[in-house]
Amino acid sequence: MLSWLRSVVRDQKLVSDQLPASAWPGPRPGSSILFLDFDGVMHPAESGSFTNLPHLLRFLESCPHVDLVLTTNWRINASRDQLLSHFPPSIHSRIVGVTPVLGDGVSERQRECEAYLAGVHIRHAVALDDDASLFDTGSTILMLLDRYVGLDAAQATSLIYRLSSRPLQEA
Prior knowledge:
Elements: H1 2-11, E1 32-36, H2 53-62, E2 66-70, H3 80-84, E3 95-98, H4 108-118, E4 125-129, E5 142-144, H5 153-165
Parallel strand pairs: 1-2, 1-4, 2-3, 4-5
């Protein structure tokens, strides 16, 4: 499956004029990946307030082996600097990439996460999102959040255990 996915990604025309992957540092060797949506995760719905940032920061402090990859639709039209501006400089080095924009509509975010993972060697990955329709039914990487709450303290604690104990399944 991974070889098929690599060929699809290689041949897929991106929907937007995204920054090249080389503009991002990529994950550190031995790191785990947290795929991060903004709306419904970092803040309730589309408020844009980033009120849940303190929960993410506490999680990152507890999990120094985790790097962030942005899956948010904000990545389509925002520059790297604009995306980073929503986070304190102390974690900029841990925001290591964005997923490609494939735009196929069927479990779209799942495919984008898989495309990113096809190019890196990591042990664990979790996707924080508020929209199950963007993932396969029974997705092993999705941690579904309530879009009107987003990431709270209890879910951040649960995420610590999830990223510490679950290796990726080889397809």
